[in-house]
Design brief:
The protein is mostly beta strands. The protein has strands at about 1-5, 10, 15-25, 35-40, 45-50, 55-60, 65-70, 75-80, 90-100, 105-110, 115.
Length: about 120
């Protein structure tokens, strides 16, 4: 299983970024996906989740209306469109999935991509 994020960077407040997570090594089209983020000294927090078909979306409260999670099953890629970015959105953003095998849940994380919102 491999999750590779890209698209992070430095952006001014009010700006936008689109993160991508390219997945491989598992049946992507039948697997739910999520984005998390983490800042130094804080626990990793859920940003958004998307079901395998894209029919169910879930967002953390502070991200609703500003962030959009989507996926392209043909490309095995999940996206996070982030608009109206705020300095408090500065964090390392991680792609995540859980795969169940023999009744056991296995968690997989990408390496993370840094998003910095600053003027």
């Amino acid at each position: 299983v491999q999750l590779v994020e890209s698209g992070g960077g430095l952006v001014q407040p009010g700006g936008s970024l689109r993160l991508s997570c390219a997945a491989s090594g598992f049946p992507f089209s039948t697997t739910d996906m999520s984005w998390y983020r983490q800042t130094p000294g804080k626990e990793r927090e859920l940003v958004a989740s998307i079901s395998s078909t894209g029919g169910y979306l879930n967002y953390a409260g502070s991200m609703k209306g500003r962030f959009t999670i989507s996926r392209d099953n043909a490309k095995s890629t999940v996206y996070l469109q982030m608009n109206s970015l705020k300095p408090e959105d500065t964090a390392v953003y991680y792609c995540y999935t859980a795969i169940y095998s023999n009744g056991r849940r296995n968690d997989y994380w990408g390496q993370g991509t840094q998003v910095t919102v600053s003027s």
